[in-house]
Design brief:
- With about 150 residues, this protein is mainly alpha-helical.
- It has two domains: about 1-75, Multidrug-efflux Transporter Regulator, Chain: A, Domain 2, CATH 1.10.1660.10; about 80-150, no CATH class.
- Strands 1-2 form a two-stranded antiparallel sheet.
- The protein is built from six helices and two strands, in the order ααββαααα.
- The longest helix has about 40 residues, at about 80-120.
- Keywords: DNA-binding.
């Protein structure tokens, strides 16, 4: 079934501008066809690919890496190991980011606990006092965040 750019925008959640950008950057798995009058014509497979593409992008894969993956896929059989290598490398990056986010969440939960406890004890005024200096030796690590009073 043929789809217009507006229909693809609606189904994919991407703007018309973003779809044009993706096309210009060579990020569609299949070249976008045009009618005799120059209007873009899409297929449901394009929408399915865009769902994958937006997940790759929102998980931090660079446009260059997505383009490389698309180019390999367009070449067809014989480069599956290269495609798998790209996906595995991105998977490792995503897993590293998840670990980092878990550390951030741990710090946030710790700080929430400090604030809840101080508020429950009626000692909230001790949480932030600009006249107090920061603890010596803070380097911005998770452990430092746990030690900091603020």
């Amino acid at each position: 079934m043929d789809l217009t750019i507006g229909e693809v925008a609606e189904r994919s959640g991407l703007s018309v501008h973003a779809l044009r950008f993706y096309e210009k950057e060579g990020l569609f798995a299949n070249p976008v066809r045009r009618t005799a009058t120059g209007r873009r014509v899409y297929h449901s497979e394009d929408v399915e690919w865009l769902a994958v593409c937006t997940k790759l992008r929102s998980s931090g894969m660079s446009l260059a890496a997505i383009r490389q993956y698309v180019e390999l896929a367009r070449q067809g059989a014989g480069n599956e190991k290269e495609r798998l290598s790209l996906l595995r490398a991105h998977e490792e990056q995503v897993l590293a980011r998840i670990r980092e986010l878990h550390e951030c969440l741990s710090v946030i939960r710790y700080k929430v606990g400090i604030y809840e406890s101080a508020l429950d004890r009626g000692e909230a005024n001790e949480l932030w006092n600009p006249s107090h200096t920061e603890p010596v030796g803070l380097t911005g690590t998770t452990e430092d965040c746990h030690r900091a009073a603020v």
